[in-house]
């Protein structure tokens, strides 16, 4: 069986100019990065802003399992299938981070015959966006320490600097560091740390910024530290916002590539959904919606994280109103949630599917709370049996969701026609009455409790003493009337990765509360979630190489 990278490398790509031309994009609106990648000009959206918006379809999933659910693969396959049945569809995706590419996952550009290409370049440095974000992040960090070294006119409390450095790799050794060692000329010694770039507020800001001027304003609002009176010191106070904007000027432009079937794919920004808001950029989504009949986008990890944040943060901030949501599941994932070991997932086990369906059922219920029609799709594996599939279909329809099988890994767009036709039927015949889950003017505690009770199924929420103090400070500063972005494990509906299925009787513990004033949301850290992942025992980087023909191998 061919690997994903082999399939991608055998594809005959069309020049990106031709892919763009098929969707009415003028060559003058492309900034080319070779033959097969381009950035879209700022003028493109302005030229098309008076056109009606396309239908917007979100693809999300059940909680991820070691078996893999294929959410990105289904997203790409659905867009390809919609084009096959005569609709003008575009796909809008997140940029892969080098962290998971070199860590657990390997590549992150879809799989099988539903991939975006050039796959290797997308997975690696792409057009340099994430490098630019890393540099902008670390410019601010260096200006904080330089300001203190040069006399500290803003009276920054060196024990209350909240801005961390960043790198786009998994590196646990950098979670907690000490900087400024080596004598007076090297600055003031202090504790510091790194986060992965995709968890940086820079990434969140890039994903939500409407244009370059909105970007600069948001960057200026970043709270980098607090002074000795407890007042915030911002990037604008440090006079860093202008230079940061310049570094991000080109990175703010969405990237255009193609799928294996030459469907246009706009890929831009990549915040993780377990530690950030998990969606591609507002600019990418809005641009796709002006150039197509149907825009298919995704949100990271399970619906309890990515979809909730897509609805409550991105849609709220950008004024988006999704028309339908596709919820991806697999028979294997349901069996895993039903207690079956990974090694045994290929054997028929209807009882385990029945037990594990509780996880899928909870996600269906959660999505329905936002007023958007739900289509459940089973990403097909050859080990799925008719009895298992029949059970899932029956229970999904009983829960009020439409149902379709997806065979897009194996067959590309052709394997997604059943799903595409079901989605099209829902778009034409079922009305979306989208609404966010909560009012952002509620207290911070009320917003967090609403998400934890309604989406996770928690009995309640506990705040550590540190989280209580941080919440009080945010409220005192008048920065509390924003949506919340809860950082928690992706593997469970709860904040405990070991609790599979549909856990009950648990309490979510909020350990830390931060304000991302530039992004415009409040981050609450639940459980043992970390903003700097570590590498596994056998990282994907060990398998990535270049063969004797100069081709990349081992990248998924």
Low-confidence parts: none
- Cα end-to-end separation: 13 Å
- Principal-axes shape call: globular
Approximate strand percentage:
15-25%
Radius of gyration computed on alpha carbons: 23 Å
Query: What is the averaged pLDDT score?
Result: 95
Percent helix, as a range, is: 25-40%
Structural class: alpha/beta
**Most strands sheet:** 12 strands, mixed
Count of helical stretches: 19
**Total strands:** 25
How would you concisely characterize the structure shown here?
The protein starts with a helix and ends with a strand. The strands form six sheets. Strands 1, 2, 3, 4, 5, 6, 14, 15, 16, 17, 18 and 19 form a twelve-stranded mixed sheet that branches. By secondary structure, it is α/β, with parallel strands linked by helices.
